Amino acid sequence: MQNLFYIRQLFTLIFTMFFLHIAAPAIGICDDAVYKEEFDIILQQLDKVTERIENIEDRQGIRHKEDTPEEAIDILEEEMEEFVDILDEVEKKSIMDQLEFRAELRTRLDWYDFKGHNTIPFTGITSGNHKHEIIYALPTNRLRLNLHTQVGSWLRFHSRLSMTHIWADDDYPIYPELNLINESRIESDISLKVERVYADIFFEPVENLPIAFTFGRLPTTDGFPTNLREDSARKSTYPSMAYDIESDGLGLSIDVSHFTRLKNSAYRLVYIRRCEDMESVSFGKQLSHKKGVYRLDDLRSSNLEIYISQFETLLPGIFHDTLFLVNLVYIPNVPPQDMRYSDDAYPFYYDDSGLLFIEKPESIGTGWKTSVYLESKNFLNLHIDAFLGVGYMESTAKGALKFMINPTALGLMGEPVLARDAYKKYESHLDDYPNAVPVLKQLQAAPPAIGLINNDGVSNRNAHAFHLGGRFQMPFPQINNPKVGIEYNYGSQYWLGFSEASEDPLHKLSNRGSTWDIYYIQPVNQYLTFRMGYTDMKKDYDHGLSFYFGRPNPVDHHILNMYFLMDARF
User: Fold this and answer.
1) pLDDT score of 227 more than 50
2) What Å distances lie between residue 435 and 73, 134, 413, 442, CA to CA?
């Protein structure tokens, strides 16, 4: 019996340690992860197991001499396994109760009207007649599956799977319209793509200084003021005019309210890195069926690193519902674009004659952009939500990707020159080199030097933009208080909007020109909302070669977009 007593004490110690190991993260550290009723279940099961242990002497003839301590241990092991199963079920239930799963379905109809001229590539020179193109009622479906779970007060997990698809379409855009910065936000196939998936880890290394560490595919889409137009809660950390692109990285958020004495004050620091594989597909071309291979050869561009710093707070006094935010985006080095698979540039990478070649710097420049954003909800109790965003950016050139010709390969004298400029340079001497004339004329269509928002590799740029607007809630409770809103934004010639993944199909905050946008929101109930809107966009400059590569050239594009959409959220 003394052996049985020690066995009971040993079991009690093991059980206590096991219980603390399982429950401490959920109860001691994360007191919101296990509800009271679940804790009561554990206590009830503990009482039952304790009662069973106390009655072991009377079970299976334990009180008789023939039962050994080993047999008693076997019985205790069975009891412990049973209790472990119970704990597993309780822990699973506590986590599942914290799991929030939501779905969103949007059906949208768009009418587009385009007027303007085509331009000769890499120039602002118009070509052809004035174009007028119309698209009637283009239908799209967008499905989102949102998953959120709070394992405890110290750990949260978020994800969003997204699909956007034109009705019954089997064709979809490729690079540069669709790539890793907006692949789940642009109309494509019917596969679900991971738009965001990230975890937040909360800790407090210093008293009154809570910190959240975030990693994964970050919530960098649907930035302010998308929440007003979408009639939803805040869905992103940043203003759309600062950064609205799908991205992977690490983030640190620090609650500094204790030090600023202002409500919801926070400082954020984010590191984003773009690592492109390009082993399988580049410029929309299938290069290989290999998957999962990451490479950087002599011709490939280096990785792109982006740093984002942001301070935000609610203002005091009568502006207590006004959010003030300052954002800084910094890119220390922009690698040149890899164009070896472009039809225009391919010969310059793989010419064995010695006539064509490229000059490729390690970096074409650095850049930074700062944005200041204000948003006020129910301003002065007037049922008006208003916002104002202002942005300014500068870039410093360090070089450009150049497509060169070696004139000596044609018998001409002189140093290498840009291929597109060779004919002009040697035009007065071509009577003596008739065989070179066809080649040099053809090379006039070669790409220009491609730098950071320039075509020379030496020009520094600066740009500005602003975005303002508001939304008014109409006092008609009988029709669920509909809302009407208006927005205006403008971007100068060299503006980099970084908003290629916005929910707006025209990506208006990347526009180098002006845009008016009006909309009407009609809530039906908490699950269904209708919205109709009208966008008037004038593009004064194009996007260069792509994104921030090349000089933006003048265009005369005028785009009208009228739309109607239905949002079901459940």
Assistant:
1) yes
2) 98, 47, 15, 13
pTM beyond cutoff 0.70:
yes
Higher-scoring residue by pLDDT: 39, 485: 485
User: Which CATH class for the 99-401+449-569 domain?
Assistant: mainly beta
Contact of 488 with 468, CB cutoff 8 Å: yes
Record the tokens describing residue 355, joined without a space: 């006539």
CA–CA separation, 280 vs 285, rounded Å? 8
φ and ψ of 293, to 5 deg: -105, 125
CATH 2.40.160.10 in the chain, residue ranges:
99-401+449-569
DSSP state of 411: T
Selection from 97-111, 179-193, 290-304, 513-527 with the highest mean pLDDT: 513-527
pLDDT for 201 beyond 50:
yes
- Give alpha helix (H) positions in 473-568: none
Residue 522 has pLDDT above 70, yes or no: yes
Task: Please report how many Cα atoms fall inside a 13 Å half-sphere around the Cα of residue 364, on the Cβ side.
Answer: 29
The values of phi and psi at residue 361, to 5°, are -80, 165
> How many Å apart are CA 375 and CA 333, to the nearest integer?
32
